[in-house]
Amino acid sequence: MAKRYKQKLGVKGEEIATDFLEKKGYKILKKNYRYKHKEIDLIARDRNTIVFIEVKAGRSKKFGEPHERVDLRKRKKLVEVAQAFLQDNDLVGFDFRFDVVGIDLENNEKMVTHIPNAFTIDWTSP
Known about the structure:
This protein has helices at 2-23, 72-88, and strands spanning 27-35, 38-46, 49-58, 95-104, 111-119. By secondary structure, the protein is an alpha+beta fold.
């Protein structure tokens, strides 16, 4: 039961994030892009930048702000999926970055927090 609730919350968060980003001029390229057993919620284009977006939706800040919930383990997974997407789509000449969009649904309100370039990566790390 809890898993189904989290899935519904995630879908709702992704819908809100998609609307928010499209209004900012982003072009959504993919939703729920999977590589192996890992996934990136949204992949978008912002001018000449490919943006890999993790959406965090919740009804409470009990576990911290959205960007704080994207830990190192999650970041490594996002990087692996992003690399696969870039290779599969032969995207040369684009910049890229990782954003986090937090959706706070506490008290039935929709507070959206967009954090561009929420984290950086070092491609030389093993």
